[in-house]
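Work through this protein:
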Amino acid sequence: MKKWEMNRKKKLSSQAVQILFNHGIYQFGNSLSIIFVNLYLWRLTNSLWISGMYNLIAILAQAVTTFLIGKRSKKFGRTLMYRYGILLTALFYLFIVVLQENIVQHFYWFALIKGIAQGMYWVAYFTIVHEFSSDQNRLRYLGWNQIVMGGSNLLGPAIAGFIISLSNELSGYIIVFSLAFLMFVIATMGSFRIQKEDMSHKSYYMKYLKLIINREPNFLKALIGWFVLGFPQGILMYIPPILIYSIFNNESVVGYLNIVFLSLSIFSSYLISRFAEIEATRAYLLFAAFGFILASLFLIWEINMITVILFMSVHHLFKPLQGNAYAAFYFQWIDLLPLKGAFRVESVVLRETIINLGRAMGIITFMFFSADIDGSIVAYVILAVMLIQLVLPFLAKDNALK
């Protein structure tokens, strides 16, 4: 195939660019607030148990919503689910602004709303990603997706941390949550520019999952891989910001250090978008696993300012490599299954449900072993879940890579 033909096939469509732009606004709203919701709870309660339960309920609600919403997404359209997910997230932050410190008494309801909103959004978003990308440009799309997310995540926490540091007491948090609400309102409006999908395939084929696995046993391994990949993510959703705040006792430092960490992720994502090849998936996954283990060893030495920064830096270098490689591998599987594109929504539902169950298990494991944020057991729990990532390359060893 001529080089110009290959470059043309790798080019993203105008609709894909629009989706990336709207996702950037959504992610910017998330990045302004998601770290600081956890810190807000921590400042109000100083309780790892409440922080853990908030994240656990949110993730389990997301997993259940993901599984239940799949059929409706296929019947009524992923565009509608996508829009509802953003709108419900906007309402989540509006409720925080209204209730403020009273969030502590109702944190489980907030976690439930957050989980439902996330479940609706991500099922729809990943279905859209598969629809508007192909095997030829999917790694490029995912690479740019990571850059957009990284850029949004780069600015959000830094701006939020700066605003909070200038404000008295906890009033800065409310300003940040108000800005997040505004971003999600804008993203909701932007969702009306997303092209409506072909509604000719409304049947929901999850009932054929057992038959599909019987025919393609390696697809089950691919699904288990999402559980393994999600295991450390649950812990790292809320523990690192609390660790950093416990060391520096300053929200702005949390935001500024996030610039450093996410700059590394953006650099890594850029390299992936330029040079990654689907055939090297297993090598990427193995390389990333060793990177995560190396990062964890810094914490084993001692939990202090230097080791936490080193852990986060190395982890953010390898996280895009693992996430993008496995996502591209899984999307390729969708095209190889007996039902092909007709099983797209179901495949995304399975992915999101299983990865969130993995995240939930990670949080449960952490809560079971770690009661003190400064205790050395934190480092060993993190190392253990990173060692599990070595299983991932073997789970990716199947027909999708032949």
